Each structure stands twice: as C-alpha cells, then as structure tokens.
Amino acid sequence: MRAFWVIIGTVLLAMWLTFSAFSHSSTVSKKDYRAPTSIHVMVALCDNENQGIIPVSKDLGNGQNPRLNLYWGAFYGVKTHFKKSANWELIYSQKLDTLILERAVFKHKTKNAFLVADAYDGRYIKQTTTDFVKANAGLLKDQLTLDSVAINLYGNADLTAYIGHDGLMEFGLDQVYKNKDGIERECIILACISKTYFEPELKHCKTNPLVWTTGLMAPEAYTLHDAIDGFLANESEPEIRLRAAQAYAKYQKCSLSAAKRLLVYE
C-alpha cells in the first residue's frame, strides 16, 4: 500500500513540474514576442541641384551620396547621430533601390523599439513627401522582417517622421490623400515652416503632429532623437515638444523661448 502512494505521489509531482514548466514557457513567449514599437523616418537627402535650397558644400549637398550628406551621413545627420547615441544600436544598413539609397535600422538598447530610417535620393523629394503623406493617411503600409522580428513601416508604424527640405514650398502633391482606415496617426516633421505647408495635406489624413515648425530651421537629427525619447516614454505632446526645443536650443545655441516658438505641436 505504501508503494502505491509513493507511485501516486511521484506521478502528481511530475505532472505539477510539467505544468509549471509549460506555464513559465508561455509567459516568456508572450514577453519575448510582443510587438515592438516602430518608428519610420523618411529623410529627403539634401540636394543642391534638385531642391530649392541655399547651396551647401558639394559633399553635404550631394543628394545621391548618403555617406556624407547633410541630413544622413554628416555629423548631425540621422544615421550618424543615432549611431553615436547611447540609446540606440545600428543593426542593419543596406541600399534598397534607386529611390531609397540606404535603409538603416536601429534597435533601442533598453526598450522594445526599432527605428527604421530611409535615405531617399534627393532628386526624388516629391516622392519622399508623397510617401510620408500617404503613410499618414494609411494608404501606404509595409513591414520589414529582420532576425524573425516584424517591424512595421509607413502607415503601420507607431510614429512616422519627415526630415529634410520642405519641398512643398516648390511643388504640390498630385492629389489629396484622405485617411483610408480611420486610424489617427502621429508624426514629426522637421523641415522649414512645415506647419504651414504640411497642414493642408495632413488635415485629410487625421494625423496628429507631435512636433512641426513655424519658421526656418536646421532639420538635424538631435531634435528628432530627443523628441523620440519623449515619445517612447509616453510623454504628453507639450513634454515631447519641450525635449525637441531643448535639444534645438542646445545645438543651435539659441534661446529656449526661440526654440519653443519654432517647434510647436498644434
């Protein structure tokens, strides 16, 4: 009889251990495979020849060469600045095609978040702008799978951003892009006077700009970087805008009040 109860006890113990292991495994899986936060940045490379800008140096203004471009490979360009950041790690970089001359993917070092930055050939600034607006209308969506992780792009992303010259000063879009799926998205637009020029387009998209501009500005990556820090911390719009303004004031050596007049959220 004693042997019988020993056997029963052994079986019950084995069942309990199996159930505990299964429960633990399920918990870990849910944690490991939760959808990451995704940020998609569209950069119109600075281009002396094809954009209505005050020309910069030949290397900085070569819109067909991301490596030294003002908004990409230069010291405060998107790729360089995020690569130097203590918060982000560059995990992928490759040319996609003749339109997107380089795609750089960064993984946040402490949060479940990815940033995908696309360097668009500067001569195609109109296409860059169109892609950005269509993404905010939910008309352009995509997904990148990297090391078995699905990273949402364009209208699927949690946040989109446009960096570069404000081409809408020189051209209009071919059509009005209206919100397709009812999702109210969030974006950042670092370009000169972007509130004035992008607002007529984005009002049809039902998009909420977290940071855009009221005047001329240098759309360098430190402003974007610190605004994204606030976004990932789930801060309010005024808090995100303050981070952006503080970064701009620091690097541009202007007053915080001037930076806050330039960078707004409404």
What does this molecule look like?
The structure is a single chain. The protein is of the alpha/beta class and 266 residues long. The chain has a domain at 35-219. It is 36% helix and 23% strand. The chain contains seven helices and ten strands. A hairpin with a 4-residue loop joins strand 3 and strand 4 (113-120). The longest helix has 31 residues, at 2-32. The radius of gyration is 23 Å and the shape is globular.
List keywords for this structure.
single chain, 266 residues, alpha/beta, eight-stranded mixed beta sheet, two-stranded antiparallel ribbon, 7 helices, globular, disordered N terminus
Beta-strand portion reads 15-25%
- Number-wise, the strands total 10
So how many helices?
A: 7
Instruction: Name the poorly predicted regions.
Output: 2-7, 16-32
Mean of residue pLDDT?
Answer: 90
Q: From the helix content, strand content and strand pairing, which structural class follows?
A: alpha/beta
**N-to-C series of helices and strands:** HEHEEEHEEEEHEHHHE
Strand order of the largest sheet: 2-3-4-1-7-8-9-10
CA-based shape: globular
How far apart lie the N and C ends? 79 Å
The helical percent reads 25-40%
Gyration radius from CA atoms, angstroms: 23 Å
Main β-sheet: number of strands, strand sense, barrel status?
8 strands, mixed
